[in-house]
Design a protein that fits this description.
The protein is of the alpha/beta class. The protein contains ten helices and ten strands. It has one domain: 3-Layer(aba) Sandwich (Protocatechuate 4,5-dioxygenase, Chain B). The strands form three sheets. The chain has a six-stranded mixed β-sheet, sandwiched between helices. A two-stranded parallel sheet has the order 3-4. Strands 8-9 form a two-stranded antiparallel sheet. The radius of gyration is 17 Å and the shape is globular. The two termini are 16 Å apart.
Length: 272
């Protein structure tokens, strides 16, 4: 009898621009297409996506029976992008488990949404990572009215799902100031400084500094005028376990200020 699948890793993916879905010139696209071969050769039982593009006041999971709708939540992009579909199966059983473990950890209200499909923060990276769209997916929202520690604790509550073969992915962006994007090939200094600070904090296991990035990191308010694109990182980091160091698994830049830095967090001393 095969042993039940237990995962040690969680991931944070910087999904950057929606053009990642079609633009072969983006290095991050090729990184994601090679994800399975390089980082996870076991097929997960299900995927839990925490996307920056689903903001709610309280935690909410989508509980979909059948196939997901593909939400094209972006504007003014090339027509072929609006024709892309990622009809992954829903994961209502996982949605129920997410709700259970969050409520058992003190998140008193967790909602279920039985209609919402996958937004581009979820389906664009998944389309590249798992193009067959044959793995059940559940999406969990972020709460921009809360802080990094709140989302880290959310991840801590979800950590046990890895023992059930659930792949936990936070999808956001290491830097995300859309008003600062340009056409320059050189990266602006504030973005470099914030990105380097985040890398150093994650690689050295300074979880509390990351949780309080808005007070600790240089140019935090410029790099993230709003926090929704960094909170998926906090969830993935929390779900990896206390004391875990991060590993930078991809790094590239686009539009002078948009970091595609992506990280793997591997649990320490966990059974294989």
């Amino acid at each position: 009898m095969a042993l039940p699948l237990k995962l040690k890793e969680t991931f944070f993916i910087s999904h950057g621009s929606p053009t990642l879905s079609i633009d072969e010139s983006l290095p991050a696209r090729h990184f994601l297409k090679g994800f399975r071969e390089r980082f996870l050769n076991q097929k997960p039982n299900a995927i839990l996506m925490i996307s920056a593009h689903w903001e709610t006041s309280e935690p909410t999971v989508n509980s979909i029976r059948g196939r997901h709708d593909t939400i094209h939540d972006f504007y003014g992009f090339p027509k072929p992008m609006y024709q892309l579909k990622y009809p992954a199966p829903g994961a209502p059983e996982l949605a129920k488990r997410v709700k259970e473990v969050l409520m058992a950890s003190g998140f008193t209200t967790v909602h279920e949404d039985k209609k919402r499909g996958l937004d581009h923060g979820a389906w664009v990276p998944l389309m590249l990572m798992y193009p067959e769209a044959d793995i059940p997916v559940c999406q969990l929202s972020v709460q921009p009215n809360r802080d990094g520690t709140y989302h880290y604790n959310m991840g801590r509550a979800l950590a046990s799902l890895k023992d059930e073969g659930v792949l936990i992915i936070g999808s956001g962006s290491a830097t995300h100031n859309l008003r600062a994007l340009g056409s320059s090939k050189s990266v602006v200094s504030w973005a470099l400084e914030f990105d380097n600070w985040l890398k150093d904090a994650l690689l050295s296991g300074r979880h509390q500094d990351v949780n309080n990035y808005d007070m600790k990191a240089p140019h935090a308010k410029v790099a993230h005028p709003w926090p929704e694109h960094i909170y998926p990182l906090h969830v993935a980091l929390g779900a990896s376990g206390e004391g875990t160091n991060g590993e930078l698994i991809h790094h590239s830049w686009d539009l002078g200020a948009l970091s595609y830095a992506s990280y793997k967090f591997s649990s320490l001393n966990r059974p294989s």
